[in-house]
Amino acid sequence: MKKQWIALLALTAVAGSGACTGGAAGSGEDLKGQTIEVVGPWTGDEQKSFEKVLAAFKAKTGAEVKYTPAGDELPTVLQTRISGGTPPNVGMVAQPGLVAQFAKAGALKPVSAEVEQAVTRHNAAVWKQFGSVDGKLYGFTFKTANKSAFWYSEKAFQQIGATPPATWDDLVKTSRSVAETGLAAVSVGGADGWTLTDWFENVYLRTAGPDNYDKLAKHEIPWTDPTVRKALEELAKLWGEQTLVAGGPLQTEFPKSVINVFGESPTAAMVFGADFAASVITKNTKAKVGEDAKFFPFPSVAGSKDAVVAGGDTAVQFKDDKATTELMKFLASPESGEVWAGLGGFLSPNKDIKSSAYPDEVTQDLARRIVDAGDNVRFDMSDLAPAAFGGTKGAGEWKDLQDFLADPKNVDGIMARLETNAAKAYVK
Questions:
Q1: Of 185, 180, 311, which Cα lies nearest the Cα of 249?
Q2: N or C, fewer C-beta in 10 Å, the chain?
Q3: Partner residues linked to 93 by β-bridges
Q4: Which residues in the chain are classed under CATH 3.40.190.10?
Q5: CA distances in angstroms from 356 to 126, 330, 343, 378, 393, listed in the order given
């Protein structure tokens, strides 16, 4: 799953434990003696950063908070805990479909009026949709990912006098100019099928628009729809020219696709990837993010407005006692987000987190684009889909788009296969 890479490639925390909590320690001792448990996907540096957020809550309220890391097994862990009658107070869930599943099974508690007010106040309206089921708000996105970024080599662009392309057609032209130097234009991590769904989703959001994006995500329109054809044909403009794509894309995993651009022996000038590509650059190359390695937003296609495809972790509550509600209120506040923001490796849709809370200009820009996109943000479509279609290695959408990368001329065949596989997965 996509969460796998977000967890494995988390940014190394760059700040110490002295992050500002935004509230005086001991200012709310009414929860002293109570213990709350949170189950989430984060391990390693991400776990350490989140535990600093929880420490800030303890300093503010006196409550003890236990964090249980579940990694990629989080859906199974939560389901097992629910079935056994021992759910945690709060869970951090990456898949909106899983949130809906738990809500419809009666395992989740709707958020309190105070939490809903905070979510409404601090986020664009579209973010409430991501956490709502049948008109009730069950959670909110605490940590998000900007999945609409092209990372490029400043050296490669300087060599041809290029500037970041603002349109898809300009991107194709720039790619051809790069290829003339003997360097491939784009490195594609096609061995990880989820990277290809990100490509498709960004092009589709810009060519078909947000409304059709929502319909396709729910399979209310088929994958044989003309809007799907348009997106695939645009992708084929880039994927279909062999000189533009670095060799062996179907054997290239996501980390390697990034290293292909910023390593000591680069084979390409650009790589499309989420904000967490920065951690791969930092940990595996000598390139400096913001200097040697820069990014530009996914370009406009056919005059489309700015838009962002996002992933994220939704905070949901399995209990509705006072301590749980107070933690949810804290997590919905700018205060909690600013603790993690200062440590790096964190973006939030919360528009009231100060830009200065983020540790560098690149992260500030990535976060700002999520906020500025407003209601033109859409959640990762493959994470909205049933896992059999949108999240299974070697099957469904992942496999179909890998086959399309191998043969970008086969638009009709891929559309038919996508629809066949979607119809099997979206069983009502």
A1: 185
A2: C
A3: 314
A4: 2-146+309-379, 150-306+387-425
A5: 24, 20, 12, 25, 39
Residue 393: CB atoms within 10 Å: 12
341-372 pLDDT per residue, tens:
999 999 999 999 999 999 999 999 999 999 99
The H or E element spanning position 117 is helix 113-122
CATH code of domain 150-306+387-425: 3.40.190.10
Q: Extract the runs of DSSP E, i.e. beta strands, from 100-138.
A: 132-133, 136-137
* Distance, CA of 99 to CA of 422 (rounded, Å): 20
The first and second tokens of residue 96, run together, are: 């909106």
**3-state secondary structure at position 52:** helix
Tens of pLDDT, residues 93-144: 998 889 999 999 999 999 999 999 999 999 999 999 999 999 999 999 999 9
Return d(Cα 359, Cα 338) in angstroms, integer: 10
* Residue 374 structure tokens: 């407003």
The mean pLDDT of 317-322, rounded to a whole number, is 96
- Fold held by 2-146+309-379: D-Maltodextrin-Binding Protein; domain 2 (3.40.190)
